[in-house]
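Lecture 7 notes: from sequence to structure.

We start with a single chain of 437 residues. Read the sequence below before looking at the structure.
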Amino acid sequence: MNMDTDLDKGRNRPLGARLRKVLVATGVGHFVEWFDFGLYGTLATFIALNFFTSQDPQAALLAAFAVFGAGFVMRPLGGMVFGSLGDRIGRKKVLALVILLTSGATFVMGLLPTYHQIGLLAPILLTIVRLVQGFAAGGESAGATTFLAEYAPNHRRGYFTSWIDTFGFLAFMAGSGVVFVLTAMFSEAQMNDWAWRIPFLLAGPLGLAGLYLRTQLEDTPEFKAILAKGEVCEAPLRTSLTAAWPALLFCIGFVVIKAVGHWTLQAFMPNYLIIHQGFSKLQSYGVTTVGLLCIALLVPWMGTLSDRFGRRPLMLLGCAGFMLFTYPALQLMSRGDVASALAGLVMLGVFIAAFDGSCNAAMAELFPTRIRYGGMAVAYNLSVAFFGGITPYFALLLISATGNTLSPAFYVMAAALISFLTVLRARETAGQPLRQH
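Now the structure, written as tokens:
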């Protein structure tokens, strides 16, 4: 990495070395967080089989996705709680707590008894654990983005914050890859019976590793500066809602396509390929794993472009791409061969990478330091809860209502239009110092 080489005076070492440590520790923690949270969507067909009774696979999957969406309902509450804490006591402590809660809940999910063992109590327990996951996840993305944004040089903020989504997509890819390997190793009966639990149980050791890395970091220079000056906000949530509401609205609008695009590709797509396009589980997880890897590799490059050409051009490109190419991409997937399915997924991946590469920095640049974590967390999670959480469920509902397996494209296109119009009204912030007040 071509990082700044100024000395970090507090540590007497090059600033680039410090930035690498921050990037790795924050990114690995983010990887663990989204590996844990995203597993539910990847394994939805197995969860439907084990926790719901319907003889209709479509109805059981709808029920499983309804519980998936329930986790998103808790995210705004988690954003308010953890975001407010992050602005009052520091970013580092809150991010450590978030990863501990999420990993613990995910590990418990791998131990839950099934419907065949305890009846209706099984989906109830599943929902409770998913709600805990959602509550904890409400503090992750905004916190990790804030952390990296407040360490990054002004002229490379897009690049550094884009790694949040790179690690997120790598986590989704790893989850899909683990399921792919397990599906290849075990029979369908074994996967349905017990092997589906293995990825959830991996959350335990992964969470401990992520927690250790995060506890080794210092808090951000931006937060330490306002702490030293006595400028820490005592009521960051109230301040965000009363004094920063334009920034909140812009952030909500930015996140619409980000949320819908992410959960379409990660949670809806593997199950869509299996149930509606006739792919085997092995083929579906293989396509998803390769596609998500391609996205992860593209995002930092897009982040670099956003530093050079601005946030708005990249975000507008991403939105326009979803509006124009989502339907053709699903048509490609409907051809029934693996190469076409992968081509369709990568086509959409280029546009989510363009948007993600610039969006994180753009969101962080909307808010002043004293309310950055909380303001971003509230806006981000409201948008994700309303638009992203319902994506798999609503996409399946569209197919059921219309009989058209390409109909989910219209939901994605509508989300892209909302974000496109929001970005058009936003000002360019690339290269500028973070707001202090």
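Residues 1-13 have pLDDT under 50 and may be disordered. Keep this in mind for problem set 3.
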